[in-house]
Task: inverse folding
């Protein structure tokens, strides 16, 4: 059974640009959550999608957005990138709310 | 606001020794998770604790949950170098959803 996949794995962008990250959950999983990991702030919840609906959103500015498609794949977008957006972005998938979540390998974003 | 605290933040221990990592959380939660992260890697699920008094063991690691005290422990028995990693606990941030609130992490280093 294939695990959670994330693309791209590494990304370098310039301040002011925008970026889109993709996450494909485990087959059969309908829930996808996104997290940002930085050395200073640790692991922070970004948002959670279930059946194409955003169920929860973390305390991040509106520059961070996401969506989920009918096949459960999810994308997150960050506009007007700032240096502080440099982080490892992790997505996790689960069958339904409150179920065990499985994390993907992450996308390491560097903003210069 | 739900807060999750771990201690210690750093743990350097000799092979063969025992130690415990503590995870305190501030509000009632139904589930507690333990994850392991190796440098530059994603999160690997170790344990899911679902009820008060739950105890789970895998190899040299044992996790327990006391929901009344809002405390979980991860006990390491006879540590070996392969256990060197960062360990995170996480708590459900919202009932029946996949919003996880993570602790600060405990960086464990096991030396000969």
Result:
């Amino acid at each position: 059974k294939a695990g959670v996949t994330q693309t791209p794995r590494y990304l370098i962008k310039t301040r002011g640009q925008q970026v889109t990250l993709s996450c494909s959950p485990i087959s059969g999983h309908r829930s996808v959550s996104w997290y940002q990991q930085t050395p200073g702030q640790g692991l922070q919840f970004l948002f959670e999608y279930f059946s194409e609906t955003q169920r929860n959103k973390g305390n991040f500015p509106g520059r961070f957005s996401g969506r989920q498609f009918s096949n459960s794949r999810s994308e997150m977008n960050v506009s007007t990138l700032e240096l502080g957006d440099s982080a490892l972005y992790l997505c996790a998938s689960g069958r339904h709310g409150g179920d065990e979540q499985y994390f993907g390998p992450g996308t390491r974003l560097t903003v210069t | 606001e739900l807060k999750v605290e771990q201690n210690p933040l750093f743990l350097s221990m000799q092979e063969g020794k025992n130690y415990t990592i503590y995870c305190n959380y501030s509000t009632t939660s139904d589930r507690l998770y333990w994850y392991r992260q190796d440098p530059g890697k994603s999160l690997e699920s170790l344990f899911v604790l679902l009820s008060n008094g739950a105890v789970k063991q895998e190899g040299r690691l044992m996790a327990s949950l006391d929901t009344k005290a809002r405390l979980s422990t991860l006990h390491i028995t006879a540590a070996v170098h392969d256990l060197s990693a960062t360990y995170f606990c996480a708590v459900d941030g919202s009932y029946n959803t996949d919003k996880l609130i993570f602790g600060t992490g405990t960086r464990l280093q096991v030396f000969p």
Notes: The two ends of chain B are 41 Å apart (CA to CA). Chain B has a mean pLDDT of 92. Chain B has no helices and eleven strands.
